[in-house]
Amino acid sequence: MAVDKRATRLGVLALVGTLLFSLVGARLWFLQTVEAEALQEQVDTTKLRTRALLPQRGRIFDADGRILADNQRSLAVTVDWELLRRDSDREEIFRRLSGWVDVAVEDMERRYERGITDTLLPMPVAEGLSEATAIAIKERVEDLPGVEIVETSTRTYPYAPLASHVVGYMGAITAETKDLYVSNGYTQSERVGQFGIELSMEQELHGVSGYVKYEVDNTSRIIREVERVPPVNGRDIQLTIDLDQQQYAEQALETQLKLRRQATATNPLDRENEFKTRAFYEVDAETNIKEYYPEEVPFKAPAGAVVVQNWETGQIIALASYPTFDNRWFESDLSGGKFEEIFDATDIEALEYDDEGEVIPESVKTDPDRSTLVNRAIQGRYNLGSTFKPFTAYAALSTDLLSTSDRYQDQGTYRMQSVDSDKCASGLVRCVYKNATCGNGRPCVYGSVDVETALAVSSDAFFYRVGELIMENNEQKDLLQQQVGLFGFGEKTGIDLPFEFAGTVPDRELKEDYARRGVISEDEGSGYFTGDNVQLAIGQGLLSATPLQLATGYSTIANFGFVMKPEIIKAVYDAGVPDAAVQGFVDISRARFAEEPNIEGEVIRQVPMPANIHDEIDRGLRRVVRTGGGNTSDFYHSATGEKLFFDYPSSAIPVAGKTGTAQGRNNFPWNDSSAFTAYSIDSSRPYTVSAYLEKSGYGATAAGPVVKCMFLQMSGIAPADSVELSTPLNVDQTFPAAPKKLADTSCFSRRN
Fold it and tell me: What is the reported pTM?
C-alpha cells in the first residue's frame, strides 16, 4: 500500500520557508542596524557631486620684472559628456565640429579616450578659438547639441623664445603622473609644468584648487549647490635671470657656433702613406673598407651652453642652451606629426634604406647633437679639458704634494714613473703622455714651470705628473677625487631646475658600474688605475660635468672657497603682482613677498683655501689672459688666452680664466669640444662666465670669444640689442625657434 508523503513534504517546505524568512529578516536587521550608517553615507555620496574650481596660475618674471610667463583669456569649445557616450552620436558631433575648430576627428577621439574624471565638467575639444569662430559656433547650436563656448586661460610667453630652457613649458597630465597629481588635488584635465621653472615650481605656481559641491538627481542633473570653497591662486615667481644678459648670451652662443661651422680642423697627415689622411672609420667590419676624411674637416659645432653667475651670491644671471626652442609651440597645435617635424632629432647619417627606398625602422636613432629639449647648461655631460686644471692644482697644493715654489722641467712629454720599463715596452700599458702640439706639429716644450706657469701655458705634462704622484704617494688612492669633489664635481648643484645631471668623477665604483652596463670593456672596468688618474688630472677620461658645475667651481676660487648654491629664484610673491605702466613688465615695487628672499645666497660648503694656495692659482689664471703671461724661464710661449684678450680694454671688467679643449671621439681634432671659464677679479662686479661649445675646436678660438664678449657686454662696451616683446609665432615654420644673431661680432676678434 502506497504511503502518503504529502504531510512530510509540506513539513519540509514549511521548514525551508521558515529558514528563508529568518535569513531575510536577519539580513534586514543587519542592514538597518549594523550597516545603516555606512549605507546612508553611500547614498548621500551618490547624491553629491564635486566640481573642482581651478586657481589662476602664478606668473614668472625676470630680475627686472619682465613677464616671462603669463595667463591669457582664451575661448574653448566643449561638449556635454553625456552626449558623447554613444559612439554614433560622438562621431557625428566630432565630424560637425572638426571643420570649425580645425581639429581632426581622430584627435578629438584621442581626447575622449584619455578620459576626464569629473563628469560635471564638459569635455574640452579645442582651445584658443577666435572670437569669430566662437560666434559662428554659437549661431549654430541647433546643429551642435551639447556644444558650448567657455572662457579658459592659456599660458603665454611674451618674450619667447628667450630663456625657454629656463622658463619651460606646460602640457597635459600623463598617465604616469596622473595618480600623483590627482592625489595632490589636481583634475586630470589640467595642464601642468613639464620642463624648466614651470615644472620645478609647479606647486607654487599652481596654487590650491577649490571646489563646489552640488546635489544631483538620479540623472546627474544639478538640484542645488551644497558647499563652495574658493581656490587660492598660484604665487608669482621672480627669477635671477636678467633678460638683457640672457638674450646676449643666447645670441653670442648661436652666432659663434654657426661661425665655427665655417671653420675646419686640419686632418693629421701620414707621411709614410703618401700623405693620405690617416683618420678614417670602418664602414664594414668584415671587409674593413675604410673611408678617408679630407685634409680639412669642418667642425660640426652643433650645440653648447653659456652660464653667467654672480660668484658672491650664487645667483644665475643667464643660462643659455643651444639648440633652443620656442616654448609657445606647446600652447599651439602640435598634433598630426607637427611635434616630430619641429623637434626632429633623427640621426640622418645612420638611416638605412631597403630596396624600395623605405627607411629601415631599426636604423632610426636619435642624434644627441640635434636634441633641442635638453638644457645643456645643467644636463650636458662633458669632459672639461684644461678648464679642470685649477682644481687639480688645488688638490696638489692643499695635500702638500707640491708647494708654490716647486718647479718641474717640462720637456713636452711625461713618462709614468710607477710602471716598470718591461710593462711599458709591452704596449699593454700606456706610459708616455704628450703635451698638446705646437705650430711645428710636435708637443709643446715649456721648460721649468711651477703651478702658476703651468696654468698659464696649460702644461699637460705638469698635471700628468700630479695625477700620478697624488695617487702613488698617498694611502688614500682617491685623494684627487676627494679634493675636486669639494668644489661640487660629481654631485648636483641644487639649482631649482629639473633634470640636473650630477656629473661623474671616475673611481673604481664608477668603472665597475660602466663595465656592467657595457659602457666600457670588462678589462677596463677591472680596476681604477694610475693611468685613469693621469687622465683625470687634465679633465679627460671618464670625468663629466656640466657648464653650471664648472661655473660654480670657478666662482668658488673667485670668492676664496665658498661653494654657493646656484640660485635661480630671486623672490616668491603673493598672487596678483600688478602690471606696470610699461607693456611686458610688472610693478615689483607693489609686490608682497610670500617668502622672505635670501639675498646673500646659500653656502653649500666652505673649501679650505689659504691665501697662498688661492693666490698661486689666481695668478696663473690671470696670466692666461694677459699679454706675455705665458713666458717661462726657459722659453717664450703665449699664454693660452692672450691672443684672444690682446685688445681687451682696461676699462672692461678685469678677469682671470682658463681655456680648455676636450678631446672627442677617436681623438680626431674636428671632434674636440671647446671650453672657457673666467671670473671677474673686481669684487664690485662679481661675475663668472662659463661657455662650452661642442665639437668646435680649441678653447681659445670657440668658447673663449663668447666669454670675452659676455664680459665686454656686462662692462657696457660691447653693443647689445634691446629686449623686445615677441612677434606672433609662425605656426607654419618647420624649425623650433627663429635664429638669433649677434649684431656686432667685433668682440670675437683674436690676434693671429
Answer: 0.87
Dist CA 495 CA 491 (whole Å): 11
* Residue 120 domain-assigned (yes or no): yes
Distance of CA 19 to the CA centre of its chain: 73
Does the residue 126 lie in any domain? Answer: yes
What is the distance between the alpha carbons of residues 671 and 122, in angstroms, rounded to a whole number?
Answer: 55
Burial 526-558 (b: 16+ CB within 10 A, else e): eebbbbbbbbbbbbbbbbbbbbbbbbbbbbbbb
| Confidence tier at 9 by pLDDT (50, 70, 90) | confident
Q: Are strands 60-61 and 236-239 parallel, antiparallel or unpaired?
A: parallel
* 292-321 per-position pLDDT tens digit: 678 889 999 999 999 999 999 999 999 999
In this structure, are strands 191-193 and 432-434 parallel, antiparallel, or unpaired? Answer: unpaired
Cβ atoms of 462 and 449 closer than 8 Å: yes
Q: Which of 665, 736, 658, 732 is nearest to 700 (CA)?
A: 658
- The radius of gyration computed from the CA coordinates of the chain, to the nearest angstrom, equals 34
**What's 85's domain CATH number?**
3.30.70
CA-closest candidate to residue 317, choices 545, 654, 63, 68: 63
pLDDT in tens, 585-618: 999 999 999 988 888 999 999 999 999 999 999 9
The total number of structural domains in the chain stands at 1
Residue 162: inside a domain: no
Domain encompassing residue 139: 72-157
Residue 535 lies inside a defined structural domain of this protein: no
pLDDT value, residue 455: 96
- The rounded distance, in Å, linking the Cα atoms of 662 and 384 is 6
Closest CA to 503 of 550, 464, 458, 467: 550
What is the C-alpha separation between 127 and 123, in angstroms, rounded? 11
The b/e string for 574-592 (b: 16+ C-beta within 10 A; e otherwise) is: ebebeebeeebbbebeebe
Residue 100 phi, psi dihedral angles, 5° rounding: -70, -40
